[in-house]
Automatic annotation (TrEMBL):
Protein name from the UniProt record: LuxR C-terminal-related transcriptional regulator
GO molecular function, one term: DNA binding
Pfam families named among the record's database cross-references: GerE
Organism of origin: Streptomyces sp. R39
InterPro entries (alphabetical): Sig_transdc_resp-reg_C-effctor, TrmB-like, Tscrpt_reg_LuxR_C, WH-like_DNA-bd_sf
Boundaries of every HTH luxR-type domain copy: 274-339
Length: 354
């Protein structure tokens, strides 16, 4: 019988009864089994079993005679040997644990490498993102919220996705005001991407063809690294998360507004005329156009910029006249192409999943 964890003898491997017997023996020169049984308040048979254990472990010595007696050995020496033996056993057990863990990590690492990748450096994230984006054949699903990490862009004019790949993005409205996110989203919409706004998003995320997903390790520190998820079950769950956010988001399109645009090109409508190079507008107009590109209505823009609604409408109307655009959507698209919303951004530069 082994000592319970709270027994002072648990570290030696002695059970409580054997420990009590030893405690008694060190108080007397020698004792027989009956005396030990009386002192420990146990049966003689139990006392004899404990005494045999002490003898086998060299903690006590049997003195033969008409009635056998037992004497304790020097505790420091005898118990020191026992503890040294226990330490050696623990060391061997620790070595076995380390060997087993090494094998486990080797096998599990190989098994899990295709399920989740950890990217710790920004250049790793950038390179892996580019590979996944260029490898897409069907669709890219994209949840975007601040803080953003820049520097993932593909060269201007070289789209990061193949023709025919459907791009759907949901931007968090609160963070949808910097030049990179505005211009990228508007330009992406012009290339056939679909854009929606939501007041709050649960996570930054990019899902590639529903076979891989990219998301940050830390939501508040995108530079801390990212995870590439390949597990089919996890990717499916993340795609479902996107679809839920997409369903609850508001389309950034004039199709849901009173000033809805005419049918898109290819469905009976002609694109707005390109009037050629046009001088960039003043900073106030640029700011109004940037906010308009997010899907904000005139009243909201007026409140944000602390100007009247009529002022907003005049700036938008003037910009449309200069661009030769007939609708607000066309104004936003042409303004982005002219660089009025900031540096020109390609669809392949959308890296909000980071």
């Amino acid at each position: 019988m082994h000592a319970p964890a709270d027994s002072p003898w648990s570290g030696t491997g002695l059970d409580p009864l054997t420990g009590r017997v030893l405690e008694h023996l060190v108080t007397v020169p020698a004792a027989d089994a009956a005396e030990v049984a009386a002192a420990a308040e146990v049966s003689t048979a139990d006392a004899e079993r404990a005494l045999r254990h002490l003898t086998d472990t060299s903690l006590a010595v049997r003195i033969d005679g008409p009635v056998p007696r037992w004497a304790a050995g020097p505790p420091r020496t005898s118990l020191g040997v026992l503890l040294a033996r226990r330490r050696a056993e623990l060391a061997r057990a620790e070595g076995l644990v380390e060997r087993l863990h090494a094998v486990y990590e080797t096998v599990s690492g190989a098994r899990s490498a295709h399920l989740v990748e950890l990217l710790e450096r920004e250049d790793e994230v950038s390179a892996r993102y580019g590979q996944l984006l260029k490898g897409c054949e069907a669709e890219v699903l994209h949840l975007a919220k601040p803080p953003y990490v820049t520097g993932f862009g593909v060269d201007a004019g070289k789209p990061g996705v193949a023709d025919g790949v459907r791009m759907r993005s949901v931007y968090e409205t609160e963070g949808f005001s910097d030049e990179v996110s505005l211009a990228t989203a508007v330009h992406g919409t012009g290339r056939g991407g679909e854009l929606r706004l939501a007041p709050r998003l649960p996570v930054k995320l990019v899902v590639f063809d529903r076979t891989a997903a990219l998301l940050p390790v830390r939501a508040d520190r995108p530079a801390a690294g990212s995870l590439v998820v390949h597990s089919p079950a996890l990717v499916e769950a993340l795609a479902a998360l996107f679809e839920s956010a997409w369903a609850g988001a508001e389309p950034v399109s004039l199709s849901s507004r009173t000033d809805a645009p005419p049918p898109a090109c290819g469905h009976g409508a002609s694109p707005p005329e390109d009037t050629g190079p046009t001088e960039a507008p003043d900073p106030r107009t640029r700011e109004i156009l940037r906010l308009m590109a997010t899907g904000m209505k005139d009243d909201t823009i007026a409140r944000v910029l602390k100007v009247s609604r009529r002022t907003v409408q005049k700036h938008v109307s003037d910009a449309g006249t200069r661009l030769g655009a007939r609708t607000r959507f066309q104004i936003a698209l042409l303004a982005a192409e002219r660089g009025w919303l900031g540096a020109s951004q390609g669809l392949g530069e959308v890296v909000v999943g980071q």
